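Example record used in the benchmark description.
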Amino acid sequence: MNDTTTATLAVVSAGVSAPSSTRLLADRIAQKALDALRASGVPATVTVIELGPIAVDIARSLVSGFPNMAVQDAIDKLAEADAIIASTPVYKAGISGLFKSFVDLIDNDLLIAKPVILAATGGSARHAMVVDEQMRPLFAFLRTLPLPTSLYAATEDWSSADLGKRIRRAATELAVLLRSGAPREIADDNWDGYQHQFGGNATRAEKVTADIDFDSDLMRLAAGGSVRHNRERPATPVPASDLDGTAPGPHRDGSSNDGVPNSYSDG
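Model output (structure tokens):
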């Protein structure tokens, strides 16, 4: 990412209360990420996706199997983002069902190689490992780049200076990764090697039949054809020693070069 490119950060917050500690944590992270990016010469903007107001739409989309307009708008924002800040409350030792339901509506290739800051809030420090035990595998499955520093804020953490230090560390990791251009390079160089959903929401997903290479070996096999062989199989070279009879092995008279008769000779 060069200095003239504007980075877009998408904040996904599954908080449902007003005010929401989950949203407050996401906002603090986003602000530090903006500061870190701008300090490194990368202009950036933030777009926010609040899942609470579209909770009913998410439920209906899960039942119907198709995202409705409100959910599609949220998915489009994710597709256009360069990085994600994902923030969820923790209920009964698990991430929010609302958060997981929204992720279930995302195409598997939507977030390939996008950096993600993982964050969660809860009423007790006992739930701190939920971020790494549940969110990290989830975003690894989506083939994102979860950043090394994950964030969890219990009630007592809000007045702690340590939370601010961890937020700065995560924001710096995000800025360094985006500044390097590595996420985009990973996606560009490996895009054809990933499995994609036809007509999906990923920005480079195949949308129409014109995008499909029907002449590929895979499509030819799917249509009942055969794989094309572009060149003849090379002949196996014969060692010169085999031609003059000096190489070890059986001769026509049943003997071998080492003087030991072959077990299958005719005597």
